[in-house]
Design brief:
Layout: E1 4-8, H1 12-23, E2 27-32, H2 35-40, E3 47-50, H3 56-61, E4 69-72, H4 78-90, E5 96-99, H5 103-111, E6 116-118, H6 120-133, E7 137-142, E8 147-153, H7 163-166, H8 168-172, E9 175-181, E10 184-187, E11 200-206, H9 207-217
Parallel strand pairs: 1-2, 1-4, 2-3, 4-5, 5-6
Antiparallel strand pairs: 7-8, 8-11, 9-10, 9-11
Bound molecules: adenosine-5'-diphosphate.
């Protein structure tokens, strides 16, 4: 069954979500107060609507309650973002994802019942910083303040060794959850799997432990 989404705010972030959902074959209603932005999405979204979502009757008339998931991607106007989120939860939308501009905004969104709060700029900043600091770190996903999943490129310091040789779990307290090898993916590698040149390890663990492992590679 096709899922139905609403994206409110068609800036860079909301616009990119809208395009991606449409490409994946989802039904998307795209909403913005700005007519030009809405026109831009008329041929991409299933419906593109000019509306101010801080007006409760607008939300009701659009039947937003019946959609599976609403994404609030209103940028700089924090007040509009908060008010929209509050009303979406009040009218009973089950799944509301909201883009936060800063930590205070995120706190308020949590309090008023936003189901997911995302910080794309902050998260991307962190990911890029990790990549810049360590050449081996290709990508980074923060799981909590302390734990992450990191993609690490291997080098000659560890290639040719099996996972058991490297003793990574005991020495560093981290787990290799998968190895990317060319186009294939070895999920849950075995202790005797040997690490080859150009492999990419996907590891999970505490940031401090992952850092120690990164240092071994650099
Ligand atoms: P980004 O950083 O993702 O590019 P922007 O601030 O450029 O964010 O985009 C936010 C969008 O949200 C703008 O297109 C703006 O017109 C829209 N927007 C702002 N307030 C409302 C509102 N009350 N109702 C609907 N859309 C809104």
């Amino acid at each position: 069954m096709k899922k139905e989404f609403v994206v409110i705010g068609l800036g860079r972030f909301g616009g990119s979500i809208c395009k991606e959902l449409a490409e994946q074959g989802m039904e998307v209603m795209a909403i913005d107060v700005d007519e030009d932005r809405v026109n831009e999405f008329a041929s991409i979204a299933t419906h593109a609507v000019i509306a101010d979502t801080t007006d409760e009757t607008v939300l009701k008339n659009l039947g937003i309650r019946n959609f599976d998931h609403v994404i609030v991607a209103i940028g700089a106007d924090i007040q509009a973002s908060i008010l929209t989120t509050l009303m979406l939860k009040e009218i009973g939308v089950k799944n509301v994802t909201v883009k936060a501009q800063n930590d205070y905004h995120a706190k308020v969104l949590d309090k008023i019942g936003a189901d997911h709060v995302v910080h794309p700029e902050r998260d991307m900043g962190k990911r890029i910083a990790h990549h810049i600091v360590s050449n081996n770190v290709l990508d980074y996903i923060e799981l909590s303040d302390e734990y992450s999943i990191v993609e690490i490129a291997v080098n000659e310091r560890i290639t040719g060794n099996s996972i058991v040789d490297l003793n990574i779990r005991a020495k560093y307290g981290i787990n290799i959850v998968a190895i990317k090898r060319g186009n294939s993916m070895i999920i849950s590698p075995q202790a005797y799997d040997v690490i080859e040149k150009n492999d990419i390890l996907i590891v999970i663990g505490a940031d401090s432990d992952i850092n120690r492992f990164e240092k071994k590679l650099s």
